[in-house]
Amino acid sequence: MESTLEKTTFEPIRRPSDRQLAAVHAEHQVLGLLYGLLSGLAFVTFAWGIDAFLLSRAAVVQPGSKLLLGVVLVLPAYTFAGWLSARLDKTWITVPVWTLIGLGGALLILWQPIEGYLAFLSWRQPEMLRLLQYPFGLVRGSNLFVVGFFPILTSALAGLFALNLIEGAARSSLAARKVLLLCACIPLLGLGALAADQMVNVHLRSPLLAVNDLLQVTAGLQAPTGNVPRLSQKSLQKLDAEDHFLGKDYQLLVRDFDEEMAVVNVLVLMEDFNILCPVYDKMPGMCRPVPR
Questions:
Q1: Quick check: 266 and 208 in contact, CB under 8 A?
Q2: What's the mean pLDDT in 32-53?
Q3: How far apart are CA 46 and CA 189, in angstroms?
């Protein structure tokens, strides 16, 4: 009885051509660049974008100064980090790079409200500097440890996940899955930046918003809220009886603050005179006129 042997043939393994490999590397770098860009947008939006939006609605002097510098410095840094991560494809380089960018972002969050704002005003509106009496800046070692913890940690984690997410996006054939993977770290970086915003920016933003609400409510342009004390309204009404400024255009500016930022003095800049409104733990006090 003769047995029939089946011959099995194997296809030789074909090595990708140099052109194919170059195309794969190029795709990875583009995806890495997009990953870094989206990560930077998340950081900038939550660190300074929300702040700029709220301040712009309250007629604050130069409300977008922090956002502008963040877009110019932080957004390109994260975009470059994403591209570099995909190009080098080495986690031991990627994580330190992203960690350093998170550290730089934290330092910028601390520098911008005081020193950065003064520098911006000296460039754009130097006449405003004589009105300010800022007693100190926020860039200190203790502040950096507390404020920088979350931005640095979340940035390092985004760098740690970068290569896997970029590789997953490159292998996926579905556009929706690619976008989902590239956006995976947006909530992480957004929360880290938002935590820093709540530890720094909110201390100067809330008094400005409180005084704006006071002016709007007293002028009848906004419905009364529990955050506007009646005594503060009466102080403004008494001043308005003489000068009739309510309802007219104004700008807001933080003049000075105490060491704990529990008391913040807000200047209301009018056409003919200024008003100083102290804010105690986000509650406006009695306002009074001051020389221009």
A1: yes
A2: 97
A3: 9
